[in-house]
Design brief:
heterodimer; A: 172 residues; alpha+beta; 2 domains; four-stranded antiparallel β-sheet; 40% helix; rod-shaped; B: 125 residues; three-stranded antiparallel β-sheet; 48% helix
Chain lengths: 172, 125
């Protein structure tokens, strides 16, 4: 029986190279998984966003003097500019933040609140719909909800603030 | 008389060994860069600075130690002054000539970056 030794050598080269590629890919995947773990800061960012909204609207337990007269009228149109928010992000095509503020009269809040007086909504609306309050699914925007009691011209109101951050690619 | 078969085997061996050497070099470069934590440190500082800006208020001056970040840049012969760049609402941290990490913040503020020794100073306007 005759063997084609040159052909055998070529197959052997290919086999060794293939084996090497398999090992290299395994090392790359292993190193990638080990060192490629991203730091998820979205929950902290959402908390900061809610705090910034409160800082912007409330001054000394009351709605700020500069905005109290127009708060229920046209303030929602100016909210983002007044609070100096910029929700655009060069890393993404669409906005990666959202803020929703529901304003209620305190008398309408007992076990939950009814009769919303005002709704201020800014940012990516889709994120609010897919908000993950349970923090179980990292592939969803991470959101924070806080209710703040305050006064506007001696009227007791509740600001129910929800903020969320997407940025899934950079945090998961 | 030349031994053509011997020449062919030699050429094949050289090609094979060259490919393997290139492959190993690329692999070591990847593992080395990953293990040195350059990309991690860039990501970490980029996010940290973005969060500081988000938590800060206009008029604030934030100083913090960034020795490890500057050490990595120095190892890569990268200018300290080009390590942290802030454009519009993005923090860009770069410790070598290629790559870098970019993370956004939500405040519409101007931030200037200064360096004092190993300290990084952010001034929010």
């Amino acid at each position: 029986m005759r063997f084609n030794k040159r052909g055998d050598e070529r197959i052997l080269y290919f086999y060794w190279f293939f084996l090497f590629v398999v090992v290299a890919v395994a090392i790359v995947i292993g190193v990638g998984v080990f060192y490629g773990h991203k730091i998820d800061v979205r929950q902290v960012e959402s908390e900061l966003l809610v705090d910034k909204v409160v800082d912007c609207l409330v001054d000394g337990g009351k709605i700020g003097e500069k905005i109290e007269d127009r708060f229920f009228e046209n303030f929602s149109e100016d909210f983002k500019h007044y609070c100096r928010f910029d929700f655009s992000d060069k890393n993404y095509d669409d906005e990666q933040y959202f803020v929703l503020i529901d304003v209620y009269d305190l008398t309408d809040c007992d076990d939950g609140c009814d009769n919303e007086l005002l709704k201020i909504k800014e940012g990516n609306d889709f994120y609010f719909q897919s908000c993950d309050f349970e923090h179980n699914d990292k592939n969803l925007p991470q959101c924070v909800n806080k209710a703040v009691y305050t006064l506007i011209k001696d009227r007791e109101i509740v600001l129910n603030i929800t903020a969320g951050v997407g940025k899934v690619i950079q945090n998961v | 008389m030349e031994d053509k078969r011997g020449d062919n085997i030699l050429v094949q061996n050289i090609i094979f060994i060259t490919l393997i050497v290139i492959f190993i070099a690329m692999l070591l470069l990847f593992v080395g860069r990953s293990a040195s934590g350059e990309s991690q440190i860039e990501e970490w500082y980029s996010k940290k600075i973005a969060l500081m800006i988000e938590a800060g208020k206009p008029g604030m001056k934030i100083e913090f130690n960034a020795e490890d970040l500057f050490d990595v840049a120095e190892e890569n012969n990268w200018d300290k002054r080009s390590v942290v760049l802030i454009n519009d609402t993005n923090v860009f941290v770069k410790t070598h000539s290629k790559g870098g990490y970019n993370y956004g913040f939500f405040n519409d503020v101007d931030v200037s970056v200064n360096i004092d020794g190993d300290k990084l100073i952010l001034e929010i306007q």
